Amino acid sequence: MPTAKSSIQDLSQAQRERLASLEMRAFFTGEIRRSEIEARFGIKPAASSRDLSAYRDLAPNNLDYDAAARCYRPTAEYKPLFEIQAERVLTWLQQGFGDGLDVKLKQVAPCEGPGGLRKLDLSTLAAVTRALCAKRVLRINYLSLQSGPTRREIVPVALADDGLRWHVRAFDRSKERFGDFVLTRITKFRELTAKGGECELLVADEQWARILELELVPHPGITWSKAIEADYGMQDGVVRVKVRAAVAGYILRRWSIDSSPDHSLDPASHHLWLRNPQTLYGVESAALAPGYPDTERALADA
């Protein structure tokens, strides 16, 4: 066990990796248990206890023990020991906590997307993921394109990437519906102790639960469609993609897929056409799909 004068460099590489994983899980989910360290790294209880003791020796003000829940939680003075990049955290959340190893660990937070993000504040991301994992209410100041600065109470339920920006999918108490909030537009936050109600949690989000099958084909306006078929490895001239209704519009926009019923958009900039646009009926995010008829409301700026 390290002494009070020990540093991270005094630890073995294996233990540094375990402590970095411990820190990320505590910071971004709001709790860490010995059993989670054991499951992640395949170590014995004695070793996980040593890791927690080593971490608390190096950062005595970072974790408090919650005897009732039998776990450690980050304190208000929490300062990460390890350098953390938001890109890695989001990829880690999206792909699970195995760090590339097929260790069959449960994904800690619902999180989907094709990749990519803009720079965002780690404290904001951590507050969102902690609220998501604990199913708690988050009070935020939000910059909306439509209404400017607003204050909202939201219940985060999932993270989603549209290829350009990361969003938090959440129940918006002011509008009494689920919507998407761009993480970089959250300017202030306050974590509340109140739990989200049953109608505010992920199980009640019909748009998230609904799975669509998009039938993508070469745009009929393209002369040499075989080239597009080769690009996407199409079978019989079509590629079928299953997506959640909540993110379908973002994906169609990101891939510049002509979603008009009569494939009327320019094939030079839309190599693919959505052959079954009727599958978007009742999909709120469809308002973002190129060429798709306008719907009553879009989730582009919740």
Detailed description of the structure:
With about 300 residues, the chain is of the alpha+beta class. The protein has helices spanning about 15-30, 35-40, 45-60, 85-95, 120-135, 205-210, 225-230, 245-255, and strands at about 65, 70-75, 110, 135-145, 150-160, 165-170, 175-180, 185-195, 210-220, 240-245, 255-260, 270-275. The strands form 3 sheets. Strands 3, 4, 5, 6, 7 and 8 form a 6-stranded mixed beta sheet that branches. It folds into 3 domains: about 10-85, Arc Repressor Mutant, subunit A (Orthogonal Bundle), CATH 1.10.10; about 110-205, SH3 type barrels (Roll); about 210-290, no CATH class. The longest helix has 17 residues, at about 15-30. About 25% of the residues lie in helices and about 25% in strands. Helix 1 (about 15-30) crosses helix 3 (about 45-60) and helix 2 packs across helix 3 (about 45-60). Strand 4 (about 135-145) and strand 5 form a beta hairpin.
In short:
This protein is 27% helix and 25% strand. The protein is of the alpha+beta class and 302 residues long. The strands form 3 sheets. Strands 3, 4, 5, 6, 7 and 8 form a 6-stranded mixed β-sheet that branches. It has a 4-stranded mixed β-sheet with strand order 10-9-12-11.
